[in-house]
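Format notes (please read before filing issues)

Several people have asked whether sequences and C-alpha cells are stored in separate files. They are not. Every record keeps both together, in the order shown below: the sequence lines, then the C-alpha cell lines. Line labels are part of the format and must not be stripped during preprocessing.
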Amino acid sequence: MFCVNCGTPLLDGQNFCRNCGSPVKHPAAAAAPPSPLRATVAQPPLPAQVRNAAPVATGRCNWCGADAAGGQSSCPRCGAALNVTVPLAESGWTQMPARKDMTKLQIGNSSCQIEGIYVPVADMNLAAGDSVYFTHHVLLWKEPQVNVTTMPLKGGWKRLFGGLPLIMTQAEGPGHIAFSKDDPGELIPLSLQPGHSVDVREHMLLAATSNVAYDWFQTHIWFETQNGDDTETHYPVGCFMDRFSSSNTPGLLLLHAGGNVFVRQLAAGQTILIQATSLVFKDPTVQMQLHFEHPASSFITWKPWNNRYLWLRLTGPGRVAIQSVFERIEAGSSEMKRWSAATSARW
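Then the structure lines:
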C-alpha cells in the first residue's frame, strides 16, 4: 500500500504518511456474500445531514482538554498521545509527553508536523493568509512562495540591554516553513485558548501563530556580586520574561527546552524551590523570588561560591514547567553585595 500523495510505502495500521503527513485512506473491507437461507433487505439511504456529520468525539486529551475523534492516536491540538494514563510522581511532578515523530497538529486551516526526536523540527504548512512569528535564528527552511517580513517590537533599547532581539520575523502563507532550535531537547506545543496567558523564560520561543499576542516584562530577579573594584549584576532567569496571550481565537505556541520537561500544578500558597535556569514556563499567577541557603556564617563576606545554594522560589497557584538540562550559575570568588527580594535559610 502506498501514499496517494507522495508514493511512500505504508505500513499496516498506519494512519498518516511518515513522509508527507497526509491521512491514509484505508480500503473498505469487502462485503460478505448474503446468506442463501436469509433474504437481504435493502436499507434506506441515510439523510444528508447524517452522512455529512462530523466525526463523533470519543476521547479527551489529558493535557489540553481537546476532544478527539475516533481512530486518532494523538491530540490534533497539542500532539499528546491519546488514551494514555498520565503518570504522576510522588513528588507531584508529571513528565510532559514527548510528541511522536511525524505527529500532526491542526491550527484552523493550517497545520504543524513535528519531525524527528533528538533535535525536533516544526514543519508548518501555512494556509493562505495565515502567519507565524519567530526569531530569525530558528528558521531551518522554507518554500519560496512563503513571504517573510519583520515584526518590530516595543521597548527597543530595553530589549537590547537585556540581550533580547529587537525584531521578530514573520512568515505568511501559503506554503511550508520549518523551524528548529539546533539543540537536543523537546519541542513543546502549547495550545492557548481565548483568555489564557503563559510566561516563558527568554530564548525558549520557537514560533507562535499570529493570533497569539506577544509582550514582555522585567523579572525583578537579580543579585549583585563584587570582586575587588569590579561589580556585576546577575539575572538568574533573565532580565526579562516573555508573555504570550490569546484573546479571541485559539493559538499555538511552540517552545524548545533542553532534556526532558516536567510540569507541576501548585496550589494557592504552595511553594517549590527550583534551579533558576531550569524554568521553562509558568502561569502568570505564579510568583517568583530568590531563595538563598548557606552555612551559618556571615553571608556577605563568605566567598566560596560553590558552597552557596541559590534557588528560585515559586509560589502558587498555577502551573510551572522545568527542563532537566540547565545552566550552572557561577560567580567565582565574588562576594554577595545586594539582591532582589529573597528568603534565606542557614544550616
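For reference, the curators noted about this record: The radius of gyration is 25 Å. DSSP finds two helices and 27 strands in the chain.
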